[in-house]
Amino acid sequence: MNVLQLKGITKEYQLGKSAVHALRGLDLDVGQGEIVALMGPSGSGKSTLMHILGALDTPTGGTATFEGHDLQQLEERRLVELRGHKVGFVFQTFHLVPTLSAQRNVELPMVFSRIGKRERARRAQELLKRVGLADRAKHKPNELSGGERQRVAIARALANDPPVILADEPTGNLDSETGNSILDLLRRLCEEDGKTVVLVTHDPEAAAIAHRIIRLRDGRVVEETRNV
Cβ distance 39 to 205 under 8 Å? Predict the structure, then answer.
């Protein structure tokens, strides 16, 4: 079953009198429990595509569906709910709140979902244990290594148990050993939890965990390969 489906997606940005074509008639299907890597040079449309998949941006043309729902037809309230409960976002720069502990950062999405304090704490501790940071729950981001911060970010992305994880260059700021541990965690989320993972990366080692690699250039899919 396709969780994410894009048909004829275009995206244009107006810069003064000029139109920038970020995506040009792009088609993409992502199946449940699949890891898909998006690769391509800077400016190829990877991040724009990621934002459309996560309902953070709307296409200029074409149809984007999430679990069969046309995203362009959903009210803003439903889109907010989708972003909060159906998609977990992981970014290269972590986007953790510096004044909050690791546990409080993980709890944050659950606060907006109005989950009770005791249940938030229980689930946050469980997720930090899952990513190997049970003993770092009370530490703030500046007391953690880059790899630990990324693990906190992944735990936060899982807070509301979303079926889809969108990861934008999740190993970009990490050394190779730490990056490999993050990739192993993402792979296990797919294999053990059935999560669907879409990964934007420049790194061939990161792309190697994917079932499929989609290569973009100038807003179009130019190649699709399947890893054995």
Answer: no
Question: pTM here?
Answer: 0.92
CA distances from 121 to 6, 108, 111 (A): 37, 10, 10
Give backbone dihedrals phi and psi of 75, rounded to 5 degrees, phi first. -70, 160
CB 150 within 8 A of CB 94: yes
- Structural domains in the chain plus CATH codes: 2-86+162-226 (3.40.50.300), 98-161 (no CATH)
Closest CA to 104 of 61, 139, 54, 60: 139
pLDDT in tens, the chain (228 residues): 789 999 999 999 988 888 889 999 999 999 999 999 999 998 899 999 999 999 999 999 999 999 999 999 999 999 999 999 999 999 888 999 999 999 999 999 999 888 999 999 999 999 999 999 999 999 999 999 999 999 999 999 999 999 999 999 998 888 889 999 999 999 999 999 999 999 999 999 999 999 999 999 999 999 999 986
